[in-house]
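Hey all, sorry for the wall of text incoming. These are the two entities for the joint prediction.
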Amino acid sequence: MHLKRRTLIKMSGLAGGGFVLASVMPGSLLAEEAPSLVGSVELNAYVQIDEDGTITIYSGSPEMGQGIKTSLPMIVAEEMGANWDDVIVKQTPEVDTERYGRQSTGGSYTLYLNWNLMRKMGATAREMFLAAGAIEMELPRDELKVENSRVFHIHSDQFRSFAELAALAYRQPVPDPESLVYKGREEYTILGKSVSQVDSLDIVTGAGDFGIDTRVPDMLYGTYEKCPAVGGTIVSANLDDLKKEPGVVDAWIINGNGNVRELMDGVGIVGTSTWAVFKAREKLKVVWDESAASKDSWTGFKKFAEDVDSDVGPEVNIERGDFKAVFEDRDNRVVERFYEFPYVTHMCLEPMNCTAHYRAGEKDGRDHLEVWLPTQNGPRFQSVAKNLYGLEKDQVTIHVKRMGGSFGRRTSNEYVCEAIELSKRAGKPVKLTWSREDNMRHDFFRVGGFQKVRAAVNPEGRVVGWDEHAIGIHQNGERVVGSGFRDSAFPLANFPVVRGSHTTTEMKTLAGPWRAPWSNTHAFITQSFIHELAVETGRDHVELLLEMLGSPRKLPGDIRSMHTGRAADVIKMVASKGGWGRKMPKGRGLGLSFYFCHAAHVAEIAEVSVDAERKLTLHRVTAAVDVGPIINMSGALGQVQGAIIDGYSTMVGQKITMEQGRIEQTNLDQYPVLRIGAAPEVDVHFIQSDNEPTGLGEPALPPLAAAVANAIYAATGERVRKMPLIDEGFTV
Amino acid sequence: MPKYQFLLNGKEFEVDVPGDMPLLWTLRDVIGLTGTKYGCGIGQCGACTVHVDGSPVRSCLVTAASVDGSEVTTIEGLAEEDRLHILQQVWVDQDVAQCGYCQTGQIMSAAALLKEKPNPTDDDIDEAMSGNYCRCGTYVRIREAIHTAAGFYDAS
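and here's what came out:
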């Protein structure tokens, strides 16, 4: 099979000779006050036209599989009137937030935060082409339009291609941002369509530019051993033995700064291949001082949680309405349940890695650092380089690399600092690769936790009070990311009578954001419990959910606060598309769940069956999603499918435990993940409401676990209140 | 160090590495073909799948010494000049990948499956692909892509 033309163009690269259309950042004083002065190619630039008609659009946000490198440039191309087949996309060549704006990604927020900037970049280019077209064709500008990478006359067959107009367009004044008019949805030719992600060809041919694939001349390979219990410091190591191992070039004891997100004590080894240093490391004998190290115990944490016997924790986050009265009213019935979820690891398939080249005194006696870095947040590393190594921005070159998954993991900088330490000592570039075991031991985990939920139900079967008490984890006096809940979540956000509180205990095991932090567990608890209430009161789950949402309204706050009407719409849609209320054969059931997070309203129905041997089959998941208009339909469908399968994988088998501060699971053989045979069909329906578009990397995951748990109940009458399911005797 | 010779993507290759160095690291760090990925190092994730004498193997578990005299095909050798393998083309057309890291291994396993069973059933796919983990959960599209490719596949 021959490549299609589009693919060949994308392979050919850019052969120089282009120029940059100047564009402006929102809030730039220069731009606001004197737009005609903004003609310099040195200002923020996302669009480049080549003389052969190739349009290069830069993507400033890092790509980790969420599709942002494709969706953001689609917005630019749409507004400028480009033909997508003429477009090639490149990652911005440097980290420079003054030039490119926000160059980090996370929180399913990147699309929302870049939507206006990308439209502005595209519309600016379009206006400059129109101005050039008017001059070139000697026609009134208001009789010209853009389409298909050209400016055309609406009353004749005259046109000029963008390539023909490029040189003249460049000399046109940059339009005042206030004057820009953006396309209406009915005019879109690119947005909302399905586009294969821009790196697809590289990915399938093995040319994918992941961080771990970095190869630079004269490079050594490195590994770094840290104390298996976080916080241990180094006493000694058998470096002399290591240095005799084949392929080992050097080895050092390295003292860190004690910051788990930067540099911890360890032993660094560099050699002629990753294999050489991994193998040498098997001979490593380190004496650690563990006096200040983690002694964490999962069983200890579990006992702590089970011993908490109060309905309310010392940290009360929200109390609203006549809370005390409804729970003390003897006519009301109080339903109470307790849920449990484990620690889980990120399991990015591309291990943490970084290639660093530290050149001492290279430029005018000043040091220079170059890193090839798969990261969600390049700008954050700039601050680390400054604080830790005293390097100014001009002394640091960051090549942001594609990430083989991240899910919140690649936001810290310890693997970067470790690579830098090795390069500094070796005097050469070093590619540091974490082993899978390193990744599992030294993750910033999704924390485990426990939660009590109570509801007051009146004699008519209406829920009249809601009470949540999470038992979670703090470090340095602060509740860690991912532990417990926030009051922006349904039903805490909208229900008239609620209380939410936390009890926490200290755990040193590293905690971090994991795909839809806290929502990924909070949804399981609350949306299972609402179904339990439906069962207890003999009511239909859909009806109860709609009643608990109340009248359609936008709750106070920005786009990240819920709209109960949009919530009701996705619930009604999923009920209709998922065949809610259908009669099911014995052993088969439907389960429903709704959740709001990351500005997204998502409802899901799971259809499961459970056989006599407790083998669970998730046949199908139907999802109804409102994230506003869809940018790339293929990418959006993929994110929902993937989040649902990821949520199921996590729910079924994944659990990290620790004793004496040591993580007990070291590799995939002790950490079951979902394989293709157990993956469900996924049927996705979007409500493309007239709101600003937001991201989909996270929000389809949280509802899944409750939908499955509720379906298991419907199929068997058995309620699951703990994850993972394999601990409850299920298999898939 | 011992020298080992094998046919790599149709070309004679000689490497000078320790006999116990896995083929994975020989490919990535010594030869410089990085399309074959390191994921777990214990044969559980499938990201390092290559073909040795036509059969799919986890290259983290076979040594350079063990492929001496064999024929090795990696993802870089799957296309024929500018003609993509049908699976690669379908993977692009149907936008299968998300992060993309596991996909070269997925495609190598799928290519071996189609060679053996040009029209695989869902059960055939489940069995042949069960050793390839996808953290992003692209299994739905992997299955669809294999079925699509099978429709075009010319076993000759």
